[in-house]
Amino acid sequence: MGFPDDQVLQRLYAAFFSLVYLVALMGNLLIIILTTIDHHLQTPMYFFLKNLSLIDICYISVTVPKSVMNTLTYNHSISFVGCASQVFLVLVFAGTEFALLLVMSYDRYAAICCPLHYEAIMNRGACAQMVTASWFSGCIYGSIHVAGTFSVHFCGPNIVHQFFCDIPSLLTLACSGDQILEYVFIIISCCFVFICFTFMVASYGYIVSTVLRINSSKGRFKTFSTCMPHITVVTLFFSSGFIAYLGSASKSSSSMNLFMSVLYSLLPPSLNPVIYSLRNRDMKVALGKIFDEK
């Protein structure tokens, strides 16, 4: 369905989406470049951050360019294969980002709670294996859900009340009783996500208890401040996703669901670079070196 039919509004939406997309693209590319060329940023934390930026670029590129193109050409159609691909890729990148955020919480736990063994725990091989496992789990997550969603028969007009193909909107088009398999997958994945989130909370529980044992208040603040960007990104990721899918499951207006999906699709990839750059001294120093050389 895209956005309202008014041509002026459509062009404004297209301009806004394009601007946000370019900002997200430039911010994440900058992080990838800085963490690649600056030898001070060759640590596990920045290795994971570089992969997070790559995921964010891929994630926002799945939905926004197609939506902008549809809006500018006044053509709101998508092929069946294109729709299935969009669902698959969105879930792959979202699942990979969740797994990577879990890995990053473990990295912070190892750095603060086991500082003497940190280099042994988070060695180059272990970091590569964790990132590979994150991508693999994202691919499995996307494959399961796209198989469950597109195994149903669709009844009625094939009009997706959304600016991209997502599972809640597609399940509303399914024939009665055909959604059971996908609902089972959703319940299983929610249980898995809850277990992983529990591990993440447990990691920060150990971190907080370790930080509280530091004698100086300055030391406590400095140690815990290394976790603040990750905590902010996790909060943004979970809150935007929860609000978007809670709205999709409710009987609220399609325009409200559309607005919440826009927040979920645009906010995390756009704000993650800002969150990590503004609160990170090493990133600022690396960026300053580039401008000084220029």
From TrEMBL:
GO terms for cellular component: plasma membrane. Pfam families: 7tm_4 (PF13853). The keyword Flavoprotein does not apply. GO terms for molecular function: G protein-coupled receptor activity; olfactory receptor activity. It is a multi-pass membrane protein. InterPro entries: GPCR_Rhodpsn, GPCR_Rhodpsn_7TM, Olfact_rcpt, Olfactory_GPCR. It is found in: Cell membrane. The keyword Transmembrane applies. The chain crosses the membrane at residues 12-34, 46-65, 77-104, 125-144, 183-207, 227-246, 258-278. Keywords: Cell membrane, G-protein coupled receptor, Membrane, Olfaction, Receptor, Sensory transduction, Transducer, Transmembrane, Transmembrane helix. Residues 27-276 form the G-protein coupled receptors family 1 profile domain. Putative odorant or sperm cell receptor. Odorant receptor. Belongs to the G-protein coupled receptor 1 family. This is Olfactory receptor. It comes from Gulo gulo.
